[in-house]
Write a structure and sequence with these properties.
- Four copies of one chain form a homotetramer.
- With 366 residues, chain A is α+β, with helices and mostly antiparallel strands.
- The first copy, chain A, has one domain: 4-Layer Sandwich (Chorismate synthase, AroC fold).
- Chain A contains eight helices and 18 strands.
- Chain A has helices at residues 38-48, 108-115, 131-146, 184-199, 227-236, 257-260, 330-351, 357-364; strands at 5-6, 11-16, 22-28, 65-69, 71-72, 75-76, 81-86, 151-159, 162-163, 206-213, 241-246, 264-267, 270-273, 281-282, 285-286, 291-297, 307-310, 316-319.
- Chain A is globular.
- At the C-D interface, strand 1, helix 2, helix 5, strand 11 and helix 6 of C face strand 1, helix 2, helix 5, strand 11 and helix 6 of D.
- Strand 11 (241-246) of chain A pairs antiparallel with strand 11 of chain B, so a sheet runs across the interface.
Amino acid sequence: MAGSSFGNIFRLTTWGESHGEALGVVIDGCPAGVSLDVADIQAYLDRRKPGQTRISTPRREADAAEILSGTFEGRTTGTPILVLVRNTSQRSADYSEIANYYRPGHADYTFDAKYGFRDYRGGGRSSGRETIGRVAAGAVAAKLLGEFGMELTAYTKSIGPVTVDMDKFDRQAIRTTPTCMPDAEASARAESYLADCMKNYDSAGGVIECVISGVPAGLGDPVFEKLDANLAKAVMSIGAVKAVEIGDGVEVSSRHGSENNDPFRMQDGRIVKAANHAGGILGGISDGSDIILRAHVKPTPSIFSPQKTVNRQGEEIEIAVKGRHDPVIVPRAVVVVEAMAAITIADALLMGASAKLENLKKIYGR
Amino acid sequence: MAGSSFGNIFRLTTWGESHGEALGVVIDGCPAGVSLDVADIQAYLDRRKPGQTRISTPRREADAAEILSGTFEGRTTGTPILVLVRNTSQRSADYSEIANYYRPGHADYTFDAKYGFRDYRGGGRSSGRETIGRVAAGAVAAKLLGEFGMELTAYTKSIGPVTVDMDKFDRQAIRTTPTCMPDAEASARAESYLADCMKNYDSAGGVIECVISGVPAGLGDPVFEKLDANLAKAVMSIGAVKAVEIGDGVEVSSRHGSENNDPFRMQDGRIVKAANHAGGILGGISDGSDIILRAHVKPTPSIFSPQKTVNRQGEEIEIAVKGRHDPVIVPRAVVVVEAMAAITIADALLMGASAKLENLKKIYGR
Amino acid sequence: MAGSSFGNIFRLTTWGESHGEALGVVIDGCPAGVSLDVADIQAYLDRRKPGQTRISTPRREADAAEILSGTFEGRTTGTPILVLVRNTSQRSADYSEIANYYRPGHADYTFDAKYGFRDYRGGGRSSGRETIGRVAAGAVAAKLLGEFGMELTAYTKSIGPVTVDMDKFDRQAIRTTPTCMPDAEASARAESYLADCMKNYDSAGGVIECVISGVPAGLGDPVFEKLDANLAKAVMSIGAVKAVEIGDGVEVSSRHGSENNDPFRMQDGRIVKAANHAGGILGGISDGSDIILRAHVKPTPSIFSPQKTVNRQGEEIEIAVKGRHDPVIVPRAVVVVEAMAAITIADALLMGASAKLENLKKIYGR
Amino acid sequence: MAGSSFGNIFRLTTWGESHGEALGVVIDGCPAGVSLDVADIQAYLDRRKPGQTRISTPRREADAAEILSGTFEGRTTGTPILVLVRNTSQRSADYSEIANYYRPGHADYTFDAKYGFRDYRGGGRSSGRETIGRVAAGAVAAKLLGEFGMELTAYTKSIGPVTVDMDKFDRQAIRTTPTCMPDAEASARAESYLADCMKNYDSAGGVIECVISGVPAGLGDPVFEKLDANLAKAVMSIGAVKAVEIGDGVEVSSRHGSENNDPFRMQDGRIVKAANHAGGILGGISDGSDIILRAHVKPTPSIFSPQKTVNRQGEEIEIAVKGRHDPVIVPRAVVVVEAMAAITIADALLMGASAKLENLKKIYGR
């Protein structure tokens, strides 16, 4: 089953393994005429690059993107865009022993159950490096959304017990703090917490929030292709995400309707909402408010303290994971959440083009 | 865009509006040879039927299913199964005035933004009655899963502040309490809470949990077609759901890896897990443990207290919703969550059939 | 596998068996705002109705269409359109003996090979009655294409040795001659030829041509979703079609490039072609000329003369098919070819809406 | 729209332009465990390589394949297989002038109509070089089919007026004659014919036939995913193909049913057919006989004699195409037809795995 593709019209297919020759993505269905340069993609990839801070894996990769097709004279042509990133820092030896046992919290066992064997080097296909393709495609999607005035802001909302103070929200800080928190002081506390985790050979989880502004009302479909349903799939398909919230999310279950409904009102001759508990989506369709979502990310499963597990021979053993691992997945996953959100909105934008006869008449001019 | 379909191989398409002639579903891709009778479907539909308790809308519908194709001599034939339910209790007059304004918390405004106009009667396509098709398809999926020893249990975990006590979990009670809570005492408290809501012309939200047992390890795909990603989409595509959790869900973000990882161990010669924080899915693929998910459902947006909104002419007005509405969506949505889970697992089961050469050799016998 | 669906955005799913309760189609993805009435669909269905002439099966069916969803106040709403036709003239007894053997030229054997058993009554799912759903969807597609000035003309080009004389082409005659030939004199000769076939307990084949005018240049995709590739699939998916030609079709293989290329020239300030050997498609994309295609239809496999075959027990037997059968499939398949062409063009029209940034800017107005 | 993908479960996406950095394909959904080496792919690619005979373009390309993902220790892993071929012999200068006008018989005009501009170098995306990705994927599909004893034989059946004599059919000759004809004498006559074409600055068309043996009965679907419908799409999606025939193809339209039906009989305890007019497919499903199809290929549109056309400014001009072009497309397209057939059958094989409950029980063992 072609499970490596996402999207209906704006459709990407990622490919590649952690320790193979290269990884990347094909993006098919991007409209012709979008200005696109390899630097647009590199800027996104640099945000997920390892080895940049002491709280991310010391594996250093240039992660340099090449665009091999789909653009001409600086613009997309409407044909598939192939982005490729070579692997340069594979140290497969680190991983040779995991060939034979199943790491808790990883996909080793389930891969074997499904396929009978696996490329075990660095997690193979289920490595976080697969997200390189997603981030590259997200850069293209974000470029497209930018043409319509849409803007995405993803950031770390919490790491372990440390939650950002929204009063100190500094949009610039997201790209400068090692945690991707928009509050430098909270970020410092989170770093200290992570240092303790590392000392204990342990790891931490956290929460990523993404806000998309400028989305026109009317994107998304009313039944299965609801915008929130596709966002939930997009975000839950990122490894380690265990819960997805839209708008006020889990809090709505303990509220009254009178508190939770967002009243409509007029502003400058346009219909707007006086509140946004819904997170910008009603009945699966964007309502013109900011779209807001959160991903809950589990602690890195690769920990250095000893763990009980079994091997392929069915023997119970104790292991201590080696290799190079981040103590928390969240900071490097921030751009992945942003990318998946951008891709989902881009697809909805394209799907919406044929929603009504009136749209088609604008295009085909009859 | 064909947004009314769900699933890759086991694929359903729902159709129908709240106040049209009928609603239903086409299920394509169900394997031939599954025993199926209209009673199998009716039993599921009866669980979502309105008018059965004082906490559900007094609209009474027989919601009698007809199977018009796809079965022969009591078994599925591998061809599309059409299930149809006639609408019998439409009272469109109740809704005539909503043609002209936008109810807060509903899809009225976003439909107009997308399509330019809408079938406003009873919410039209965005009515909860659309789920009739999902539930019918879920009944078929559950029948198929039953052939492999899989079993689904969905129930109400909370309504407003009332949460079920897992020590008093009574599987039978789910189908007998009006709240679908498996704890009669909690259910009584929830009913009392809802009576207060109704007295205040207000509504409540809640949480639905679904547990699927007997799922073999190896279902689901490692990248975008992750089993949890598809479950998240399936469940988030149900109107009013604002958050989806898998396994321990939102709690994982504040945990350490050493707490959250599920160790593997041997039991009766088989690999099992000693814990199930993951909710039965690792790397997007089932691990043989119970699959566990939760849906957070917002309070019914249709409330009888006055609300501010705007009309199609762009005037700010105050409205009080009329018609027949449940004070809480949760109890009738329990079977919808179960249905969507069944459909998702069934699709993964079929997709898995071609995952490895060895499987194909078993089938084609070379 | 969901093999009963066709189209990417304008997507239909047919359902139903020859002798089941009903057959029909769900059409998802039709844009909102297209004027549509049940009479639009009935007019198309009437063109494939049996029992109208002495060269079609005496099975008489009203084949009355009902629209159960997807329209409101005479226009499509953008939601799925369910069209249902009840079966009224089933005489299953006629078919009971075919339960046990394999008719040459039919799908009885291959169904058993695939699914293990089959609804044998009247051919079940592989009956020509399945095309009712296609024709209903084709009527909707044609309505949509009409909004853009496109027009479809399908007709019988030959039956056995009788070919229409294009000098006597009378567009009106297509709907009045029992053969759907646009040349009354040729039609009379074809009828006489068919009378001979019937006398000999035999059947005849023929050719259907379809011309689509008014198609704007630019529809279709350059690689796998080529307009001609999709037309070929659409037409070859009609039972009994064994060859599909686009433009000059099989003749091109014996030509020189200098003869076969269509020169471009200017006319009234627009680019047109001075010839149309290509049948209106270049590189998979419409070129603004008429689209021309032909389907070669095999002779009706149900013949009354004795034939050798085998039964389910693996015994060689001789059979003589009974029941009610047309001596030629072509006349009733004319509207099916037209419907499939309309559906394919409609889908390309919708897919084209997001082909370039400029289109999207026209819609979303930035 | 993602028009660069083909297949439902065995799904490929080709990417790349004639004069870009590289071209290739991602194949997703190939089962795990198929033995695969880059040499398997290179052998197929070598059959379409230019510059090998005097009747193919003198553009010389190594067309060396690299596999960048999806295999491990010599076997497929079930994850996407990326095959890349670098372009090495681009001479874009040859093409610079075609940026501004529309070559007859090419996609230049229709690309501009669809996308607003195009990568004109060497035809860009609509170049025959796009088929590199198809052929690479076809090699993988053929490897998979080989595991089940299926074998594909494609060859040149005719070039211009020269048709192969089936009495002199020499399977080995297909890969040694420059025409891919399995009759060396006919091949010599065809070469002489092509030499005349070249002398006249003109080109020729021809016919390719493909026979697939060893296909089990039961592959394909009964409605839109008919095996012949998908083969028709697969083959018609190859540039320059204008007609597709299955089995006796266009001849069936002038036959009687008594001549055209294939009787069933028993052989060695198995059901077989006593004839194969149907070309191995009944009702869209394989019947166990050889599958036979033919593609009619138009003459190369790039001819050196002067032609009338228009430029982007709307001026009528006369042009003489330059560059490096084959006088006939057929010989190098033989392997492309074979590849597309292999891909289509492979997809049907995988889709068939979930057709009946019995199959699933074999896999999941309940």
